Amino acid sequence: MAAETLCDFTVKGLKGWHHRVSGGRKARVVIVHGLGDHSGRHLSTIDQLTAAGYECVRFDLRGHGESEGRRQWIDSFEDYIEDVLAIFDWVEGHLSAKPVFLHGHSLGGAICLRFAAHYQDQLSGLFVNAPAYKLGDGVSAFKILVAKIMNRFLPGLTMKSSVDITALSRDPEVVMGCQTDPLVCGFNTVRQGYEILKVLPLMIDEVKTITIPVLFTHGQQDRLIQWQGSKELFNICSSGDKELLCFEEAYHELHNDFDREAYFQKILGAFVDSYASSSRC
Question: Where is the Serine aminopeptidase S33 domain (predicted)?
Answer without folding.
Answer: 25-257
